[in-house]
Structures are given as structure tokens and as C-alpha cells.
Design a protein that fits this description.
Chain lengths: 413, 119
């Protein structure tokens, strides 16, 4: 029974996108396809417990989902002929009914991803649709990751599917000329999802491991499909190299441990190696993109023997290039931390104050938190206390809040 | 094939000051746009410029049985609807490609037209 449950979970995780993408081609509409795939997974539980897990669960599920889609098409033939077809099948495409399981083109999943991340959809809808349709995550689960009610998330997904259908967002790969921009949207969605799990908002745990795991799965899938795109390599490397710290960012009591004080011995060497070899590859592409550069920064941290042994000047160089490619106050703030390590807290503080006066990061808790830490190191305790208080007001995560409160008490003694 | 309405928004105060030459240039830009759309496979089925919102009249409250008539546009905005097109395109990507090359000093809202006749 356990083996069955494992096989089922595994199939859900690995095969969902594949099965859905293959079914959309038959069903012609995303929500019909989604329903058929859902039904196929339900049917699998019964069939597999009776007859055993098939050798190729993905193929089994695809056949089952497509059969349902075809049944539905036949049933609704009159209705369907009046609805716009989501996909206009190419003349040389085989008839959907004749497609055999293993002829599914790999592009189907990519088309699905690019449809979900179409620029005509809002950023939050792109994320919601990708998680629902590509990952098969349940609506309540997605709602929890993004801190909205289930009803709001359900409405968002329905609205998105409706827009795809009514506005006729095509189910195709973007044109070559549009690919960099369109790909950037997809990578941003995956990165956003990873970040939501890496520091889970308003949760009593720092990391939402399931969300982190699923976002790495997504990055891996994209990498398998578009392995020569350097930003795809960059994103996968960035996630792998950031995620090696997952276990060591909290101690046994669940309290936050800063990078400075983390025990690096449990960091997964194989994962670091994989990330670093990807970074070596992406840095050969010119000019490196923002994900490649962020990955290179993560690689410096992951490869340093200790905090003190970190190559800060290498980091500063990378941040300078990143700021060029992707001017953002968040990058500036991270750069300030590196400057503080190289040239002292005073130099870092000057940059942080500059960012603060620009006012773009007014709601960003890491700004006052960084400022507080620099002031603490300069022994300017009253000002540090004030900044810690500001950070505590803005912070979402309970573990981070507890850390800031401890620091506040320290500087007030 | 799908049909989209392009609502061209722009700053009316700029339009109020256009010279004859500006107007001719604008017409030329729109003619070129029409040629481009045709070349790219779209079909413009309708389109025109609208007189400014200063001469618009809004009629509301039809459902109450005693509609009111007021001077002015339905919604007061800085950038007002100044012209429109109705274009047949393959899908939203093609429709967006047309919108990107359309002549406007403001922006264009692209809305799918619902097929109430053929459906």
C-alpha cells in the first residue's frame, strides 16, 4: 500500500505537467484538460491498487486523461464546434485520436509554461496558473504560499483561465525574437515561488520545504527542456546554491542562524558541485544575465570555507556587474553588506542611508534590519534599536521577527 | 481567427493643438499602420478617429425607465479614447504585435470582440 502511495505521489509530482500538456492538445481548452487530468489521477488510485502500478505511470495517466478528453469532445461535439479552439492543430499534426502515448512532443510542457506566463496576464495570475496547471498544486496550497484566501486564489485562477480562452492567448512557443523577454517572465515566476518558500511569510517556520522543492522541480524541468539558455542554467544554479543552506538557517530550536554563524559541514557537496558547474557554464555567455550573476554570487558563498574566508572582493565585482544589468534597490542593499565587510560598517551604512532616502524600499524589512546591524557594529546603540523596531514592524516571518527582537534586547542592555 | 477592438487613448490637450501638418502626418502614420497590418496577415474591418470628449454626451439610467442625459464622457480621464480599430487577428500574440506598431501618443487597449452572430 505504501509503495502505491509513493508511486502515486511520485507520478503526481513528475508527470502532472506532462499529462496535462499532452491532454490540452486533445481537449483544446485548459480547464477541460485540467478536469480530465484530475479524473485520470483519481482513477489511477483505484486501478493501480487493483492491478498494480504500471511500468510507465506517466503513459498510463496520459492515455486515461486523453481518453476522457476525447469522450468529452464527442459528447459535446455540437457545443464544442461553436467554441474557439485553443490550439489550431497544424495541418501536419496527427489527428489527436491517433496520437500514441510516446509520441508526445516535449514542447507541450513548454507551450503550457509560456501560456501560463503570458505577459497579457498579471504577474500574480501567471504565478497562480503556473503552479496550478504546470505543477498541479491544489488551489488551497497555492493560496497558503501566497498568503491569500482560498476563494481569492480560486477566483484568480478562474479569471486567468477565462482570459486565456476569451482573449485567445495562443498555446505556442514564443517567436525567437520574443523568447528572451518571455523566458524572463517564466524565470521570474519560478524565482518568486522559490523565494516565497525560502522565507515563508507569516509562518512559524522559516522555510516551506514543499514550496522550495516544487520550485526546484520546475527549474529542473525548464532546464531539461531549454538547457542551452544561459538564464535557465543560471536560475537552476541560483536555486540549488541558495537551497544548500536550507537546513542550517535555523538551529535545533527553530531559531534563525545568520550565514556568519552557520555550520557549513552539512551543506550538500553534490548539490554545490552541480550548482557551481552550471555557474561555470553560464559565466561563459556574454553578457551574463541577472540570474546567472545571482547564481555566481550564491556560488561564492556556497564555495567559501567559512564566512571569514569569503571572497568579498569577488562578490563586490559581481554585484557591480549585476547592478549594471539589473538596477534595483534590493541589489544595492545586498551590495552594501559586501561593502561593509570589505571597507567597514561605516561605508556600508552610507550606501544603506542613500537607499533609504530614495524611499523605494519603505516596506522592505531587510532595509532597516541591515541598517540596524551596521549601527550595532558601530556601537551606535540607540539608533540601532530604532532601526530594529522598524524592521520588527515590517517583517512577515515569525522566525525572523524573533531574531530581530533578540537583537533589539541586546542593543538596549 | 479572432476579432479585437483597439481603443486608442491619448492626451486630448495635445490633440487640440495639432496643426494641419501634424494631422497629415498622423493620417500618414495610420495609413502605414493599415498597410503593415495587412502585410502581417491581419484584416482591419473598421476604424476611425473620434471627436474629443468635450462634445461627448452620456446617457445613463436606462434600466430605471427615465434615463438621464449629461454632457461629457462616461469616465473622465486624462488620457481619453480618441480613436478605434476593429481588427481580425490569429490570436492574442498577433493582436499584440499589431498594437505594438499602432500609432498613438498614449496607449492602446486591446479587447476581444465577442462573436454574438456566429455563436
Amino acid at each position: 500500500m505504501n509503495r502505491l502511495a509513493d508511486a502515486f505521489d511520485d507520478a503526481y509530482r513528475r508527470e502532472w505537467a506532462f499529462v496535462l500538456a499532452a491532454t490540452v492538445r486533445v481537449a483544446g481548452s485548459l480547464d477541460v484538460a485540467e478536469e480530465c487530468v484530475q479524473d485520470a489521477f483519481v482513477a489511477a488510485i483505484g486501478a493501480w491498487s487493483e492491478h498494480g502500478v504500471p511500468d510507465n505511470p506517466g503513459a498510463w495517466l496520459t492515455t486515461a486523461a486523453r481518453r476522457r478528453a476525447l469522450d468529452q469532445l464527442r459528447r459535446d461535439k455540437t457545443l464544442r464546434s461553436k467554441l474557439p479552439l485553443l490550439i489550431e492543430l497544424d495541418a501536419n499534426d496527427p489527428d489527436p485520436a491517433d496520437i500514441v502515448e510516446d509520441s508526445v512532443v516535449i514542447d507541450d510542457r513548454l507551450r503550457l509554461v509560456f501560456t501560463c506566463c503570458h505577459p497579457a496576464l498579471s504577474a500574480e495570475t501567471q504565478a497562480a496558473l503556473t503552479l496550478r496547471l504546470v505543477c498541479g498544486l491544489s488551489t488551497p496550497r497555492i493560496a497558503r504560499a501566497f498568503l491569500v484566501s482560498e476563494a481569492t486564489m480560486a477566483a484568480r485562477i478562474t479569471r486567468g483561465e477565462k482570459k486565456i480562452e476569451v482573449a485567445q492567448i495562443p498555446y505556442v512557443m514564443p517567436a525567437e525574437s520574443e523568447l528572451p523577454e518571455r523566458l524572463d517572465t517564466v524565470l521570474t515566476v519560478i524565482h518568486l515561488f522559490f523565494t516565497a518558500g525560502h522565507t515563508a511569510s507569516s509562518q512559524d517556520e522559516l522555510v516551506d520545504s514543499e514550496v522550495v522543492g516544487r520550485s526546484i522541480d520546475l527549474a529542473r524541468m525548464l532546464h531539461a527542456l531549454l538547457q542551452y539558455e544561459s538564464e535557465v542554467q543560471g536560475l537552476l544554479a541560483l536555486l540549488l546554491l541558495t537551497d544548500v543552506r536550507r537546513q542550517t538557517r535555523v538551529d535545533a530550536n527553530g531559531s534563525l542562524v545568520l550565514l556568519k554563524n552557520q555550520d557549513r559541514s552539512p551543506w550538500d557537496a553534490a548539490q554545490i558541485d552541480e550548482g557551481r558547474s552550471l555557474v561555470a557554464l553560464v559565466l561563459m555567455s556574454r553578457p551574463p544575465g541577472r540570474f546567472a550573476l545571482q547564481a555566481a554570487i550564491a556560488a561564492v558563498h556556497a564555495g567559501a570555507p567559512s564566512y571569514e574566508g569569503t571572497d568579498w572582493s569577488e562578490l563586490l565585482g559581481l554585484y557591480d556587474v549585476l547592478l549594471d544589468v539589473w538596477p534595483s534597490p534590493v541589489v544595492e542593499l545586498n551590495r552594501a553588506v559586501v561593502v561593509a565587510e570589505l571597507r567597514g560598517p561605516e561605508a556600508g551604512l552610507a550606501i544603506v542611508d542613500g537607499i533609504a532616502s530614495a524611499g523605494q524600499l519603505d516596506r522592505y524589512s531587510y532595509l532597516p534590519a541591515t541598517r540596524a546591524d551596521l549601527l550595532r557594529r558601530l556601537n551606535r546603540r540607540d539608533e540601532a534599536a530604532l532601526s530594529y523596531k522598524q524592521a520588527i514592524v515590517l517583517v512577515d516571518n515569525d522566525v525572523e521577527r524573533a531574531f530581530l527582537q533578540d537583537r533589539l534586547i541586546e542593543v538596549q542592555v | 481567427m479572432a476579432q479585437y477592438m483597439y481603443m486608442i487613448f491619448g492626451d486630448e490637450s495635445e490633440m487640440a493643438n495639432v496643426t494641419k501638418e501634424d494631422w497629415a502626418l498622423m493620417l500618414k502614420a495610420h495609413n502605414e499602420f493599415a498597410e503593415q497590418v495587412a502585410k502581417l496577415g491581419g484584416t482591419i474591418t473598421n476604424g476611425d478617429a473620434l471627436a474629443p470628449t468635450a462634445v461627448a454626451t452620456t446617457v445613463r439610467g436606462q434600466s430605471t425607465g427615465s434615463p438621464s442625459v449629461t454632457d461629457g464622457p462616461f469616465v473622465e480621464t486624462k488620457e481619453a479614447l480618441g480613436g478605434f480599430y476593429v481588427i481580425d487577428a490569429k490570436d492574442l500574440d498577433e493582436a499584440i504585435a499589431f498594437a505594438k506598431i499602432s500609432p498613438t501618443n498614449g496607449g492602446v487597449e486591446v479587447r476581444p470582440v465577442v462573436d454574438t452572430v456566429g455563436g
